[in-house]
Amino acid sequence: MLLRPIYDITPFTALDYPDHLATIFWFAKCNMRCVYCYNKDIVFGEGKISEEEALAFLDSRVGLLEGVVLSGGEATLYGDLVEFCKKIKQKEFKIKLDTNGLNPEMIRVLVENRLVDYIALDYKAPKEKYYEITKDKHFDSFSKTLNFLIQKQFPFEVRTTVHSDLLRVEEINRIIKDLLKRGYSGTYYLQPFVFTENTIGKVKEEKNPFDVSQLSHELKVVWRA
Ligand code: SF4
Questions:
Q1: Of 148, 189, 206, 211, which one is least surrounded by beta carbons within 10 A?
Q2: Calpha distance 6→181 (Å, rounded)
């Protein structure tokens, strides 16, 4: 067990957990290296906050907040996440998990034991571009998580960060086709890349426009600025 798995805590958010006032626990470390990622401190840094400190923070927010967002980094890298979620649940907070989906087994345990209430799953790129964007080769693990959540009819959303030189509208349409084929009928969220100098892959500012009018209408697509 990591003594300090959490890099930072955002005490309050009204935006990151749909319809709930929440806090965000940012877990240190990630198993991807997305080229557009600007959270280098979290991805490469060490955690600074222990479980006990995070739970004590929650005690101070009982009656004020409804939920906890487990984000990162990648929270499912924390080997004791299941036990940690049990402790959060004992305090009657709802839990949202932000994940890249690379740990389908842990997600299965969390879902089947009702230890999470909502999941935001990143669909980083179509299979053939997955490595180029994430530097990870385990699309099949992500795919397993996606199929599991659909099959369970679990409340979750799928989202993609769009850097318009890295992912073209045709590729987003391929993701939409794939989601439909698998039986996903929820909203598909697109998040525009916001330029910053210091990304993992040192990506440049976007040169190509992203033509929203060419997006498929087969699924409800929402831009989340
Ligand atoms: S953007 Fe990619 S590298 Fe950065 S935290 Fe998320 S999954 Fe990890």
A1: 211
A2: 37
